[in-house]
Write a structure and sequence with these properties.
19 helices, mainly alpha, 465 residues
Length: 465
């Protein structure tokens, strides 16, 4: 443990290099992770028959998948920053207990979610915007996908602890193993075995199983700093509260993403039918891919910020914030310009039907307008989480989605004859308002916090002498 901890000491060397050393493998891991679901849609969207209906059916499962992902955020991303902060303080016993409590919470919630959604999947899918034409595709995919829920919880949730200990490459290999398997099995099950959407789901859960096995094997091996130990998995109420409180922002962000998808699909079904639900499926898929590097950088920065905050290195925390924000803003600005220049190219990746392209291009131009503002939300949110400021993280998770996007999605289609355009317009409006509010509040709150830490260190220095 000592050798690994010394090697992954984020309080030494260049802050930018510490982040990049983590960000490169983690961004690759994010890309690979996105491929789990995106590759499914790419294949399904080009089926010889009923490709748009099948793609739309998979899109209807997004809110449920978002809710499952939300629990990996609640207990995985909630525990990992606390583990980093405890490691920075040198409290290794608490750090390992946090890891094990999070594991127990992830497995338990995975079992409950599997049973709940299997029992209520039919009414839920119709509530989320399914039609009689799209329900069979959604049901076929979801029923099989849910059987791998526990694997998702372990693979995604516990991989955060591998990354938080500084093993970014190992974290990348976690999702690389699963994604490569998924890419290989998808065409085999979908086309060769003629299983369609069921084949896509089966390939996904087998891939997630392999990722989960890899994570458990690493976290019980000799290379990791902190290990999975049954003796430490007994839940401790104070730790559960702290883990849940810090993970609540990511949880709410994922749940509200699911809520937005539900409201968008239902509203688009009302104003544009299955075609526009399919357009939203494609746009969500594109967004998942292009936001991946931002997620990679901000997730990589969190353990660096948390460790240095716990180690009382405020100057290094400031440097990490500046570097992360600059990279994210620059990247999203470039991506926005590319998306506006070639929308047809990106839509073609998922579907080539003329009617979807015709409806999708103008919708995409509206949906991604001012995309760079989204990076402010990611940057601000990641700093709040890294430093353990759960209340602020929760507030701004709710603000952008629950308080801005959902009301606008319901209201705008009825104004000025906007119709489906109003649904897509809600996203950029929320990025400008929510992103700016989150980022500038973070600068003020965290700036004050770091100044207090600097003053405390300055006053303690003479006493030590």
């Amino acid at each position: 443990m000592a050798d690994a901890a010394q090697k992954n000491d984020f309080s030494k060397g260049s802050v930018a290099r510490c982040i990049l050393n983590m960000a490169v493998p983690m961004t690759a891991a994010q890309l690979i992770n996105v491929l789990y679901s995106v590759v499914d849609r790419m294949y399904i969207g080009h089926l010889p028959e009923a490709s748009t209906l099948a793609l739309t059916g998979i899109g209807l499962t997004f809110p449920i998948i978002s809710i499952i992902s939300a629990f990996t955020q609640l207990f995985g991303m909630g525990g990992a920053p606390l583990c980093s902060i405890a490691r920075g303080r040198g409290d290794h016993e608490e750090a390992e207990t946090i890891l094990n409590n999070s594991f127990a919470l992830l497995v338990g919630s995975g079992v409950v979610l599997t049973v709940f959604f299997l029992v209520f999947r039919r009414p839920i899918l119709y509530l989320f915007g399914a039609s009689d034409e799209t329900y069979p595709y959604a049901d076929s995919y979801l029923t099989i996908y849910l059987l791998g829920t526990v694997f998702v919880m372990i693979g995604l949730g516990m991989n955060s602890f591998i990354n938080s200990q500084g093993f970014g490459r190992t974290g990348m290999l976690t999702v690389l193993l699963g994604a490569v398997t998924n890419i290989v099995l998808d065409p085999l099950f979908i086309f060769v075995c003629n299983m369609g959407v069921a084949g896509a789901a089966l390939a996904t859960i087998l891939s997630q199983f392999l990722s989960a096995v890899w994570v458990v094997r690493f976290l019980t091996g000799k290379q990791t700093i902190y290990r999975l130990k049954p003796s430490r998995m007994r839940l401790k109420a104070p730790l559960v509260r702290r883990i849940s409180a810090l993970g609540l922002s990511g949880f709410i962000m994922s749940v509200t993403n699911g809520a937005v998808q539900i409201v968008c699909n239902a509203t688009l079904q009302q104003f544009g039918g299955d075609l526009y639900v399919g357009v939203m499926t494609v746009l969500n898929s594109i967004r998942e891919v292009v936001t991946m590097p931002v997620n990679g950088v901000t997730n990589a920065a969190q353990p660096v910020m948390g460790y240095n905050y716990g180690a009382q290195q405020p100057a290094r925390v400031r440097t990490a914030i500046k570097f992360t924000s600059t990279v994210c803003i620059a990247y999203t600005t470039v991506v926005w310009l590319i998306l506006m220049a070639a929308p047809q190219f990106f839509i073609h990746i998922f579907n080539s039907q003329t009617e979807l392209l015709t409806a999708g291009v103008p919708s995409m131009n509206v949906y991604f307008f001012g995309f760079f503002m989204m990076s402010l939300q990611f940057s601000g949110q990641s700093v709040f989480v890294a430093l353990g400021k759960s209340k602020h993280a929760v507030l701004f998770s709710l603000l952008r989605k629950a308080f801005i996007v959902v009301p606008l999605t319901l209201l705008l289609p009825h104004l000025f004859g906007l119709g489906t355009t109003g649904v897509f317009l809600a996203e950029p409006i929320s990025n400008f308002i929510g992103g700016a509010a989150c980022f500038f509040t973070m600068l003020k709150v965290v700036g004050h916090l770091l100044r207090e830490q600097e003053q405390s260190l300055a006053s303690a220095a003479p006493a030590q002498k």
